Recover the amino acids of this structure.
C-alpha cells in the first residue's frame, strides 16, 4: 500500500476525521444549531479530502511510477484507467 511514514500520516488524518465526525454526531444528538453542524460537516469533508490527497500522492509516487518503470503496456494502461476513475470520483470534491 504505502510506506510507513505515509501510512502514519494517513492514519493520523483519518483519526482526526473520526473525532470530528463523532463530534458532529453528538451535535445532532444534542440538537445543535444547524449551521454549526454544517460547519463541522464541512471540516469532516475537508479532513477526508486531505486524507484522499495523501493516499493519491503516495499511489502516484509508488504504484503508478512502478508500473511505468517496470510494467508492460497492459499494466501501464490499467494504471491510467484507474487514475481516470479516481479523478472522476474525486475531481468534483469540494
Amino acid at each position: 500500500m504505502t510506506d510507513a511514514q505515509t501510512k502514519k500520516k494517513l492514519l493520523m488524518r483519518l483519526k482526526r476525521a473520526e473525532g470530528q465526525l463523532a463530534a458532529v454526531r453528538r451535535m445532532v444528538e444534542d440538537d445543535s444549531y444547524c449551521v454549526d453542524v454544517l460547519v463541522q460537516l464541512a471540516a469532516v469533508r475537508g479532513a477526508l479530502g486531505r486524507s484522499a490527497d495523501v493516499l493519491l500522492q503516495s499511489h502516484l509516487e509508488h504504484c503508478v511510477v512502478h508500473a511505468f518503470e517496470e510494467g508492460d503496456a497492459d499494466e501501464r494502461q490499467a494504471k491510467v484507467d484507474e487514475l481516470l476513475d479516481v479523478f472522476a470520483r474525486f475531481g468534483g470534491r469540494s
Q: What stands out?
A: The mean pLDDT is 91. Residues 4-90 form a domain with the Methane Monooxygenase Hydroxylase; Chain G, domain 1 fold (CATH 1.20.58.1000). The two ends are 26 Å apart (CA to CA).
